[in-house]
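Final report, Chapter 2: Outcomes

The project's central promise was a pipeline that accepts a single protein chain and returns its three-dimensional structure in a standardized token representation, suitable for archiving and comparison. That pipeline is now operational. To close this chapter, we reproduce one record exactly as it appears in the project archive, with the input sequence first and the structure output second.
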Amino acid sequence: MKVDGKCHCGEIEFEAEIDPARVVVCHCTDCQVLSGTAFRTVVFTESDGITFKKGEPKIYVKTAQSGNPRAQGFCGNCGSAIYATSVGDGPKVYGLRAGSLRQRGSLIPGKQVWRQSALSWVDDIKSLPAVQQQS
């Protein structure tokens, strides 16, 4: 499936080829800290399946819990997260941050990962009072 996305300020725009069956919710503590929220929704590209149409992301390399270095691509201007991928040469699969994609509403997660790190209230969010927009 072809998707397109951008950062919040519009400095970065991209297109990608993804597998819509590979959408996950990640509860790892790195995703919590890097996203500033309880979890992150990720969809994976095909190998080398991303093309930047405008701008280039800034890269921050973190060490994953596995010990592997992971490149985090984000907008250097507004800070919007775009992807994570492996470091080094060779073909890459990108874990796109679903919030940056225009098609995010149709990308339904099929799995949760790092569930051991999930915040205790995540399963109860549906029971919270809700308003359609903030006034």
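Archive annotation: The beta strands are 2-6, 13-26, 40-54, 58-63, 69-74, 81-86, 95-97, 111-113.
This record, like all others produced under the grant, will remain available to the consortium after the project formally closes.
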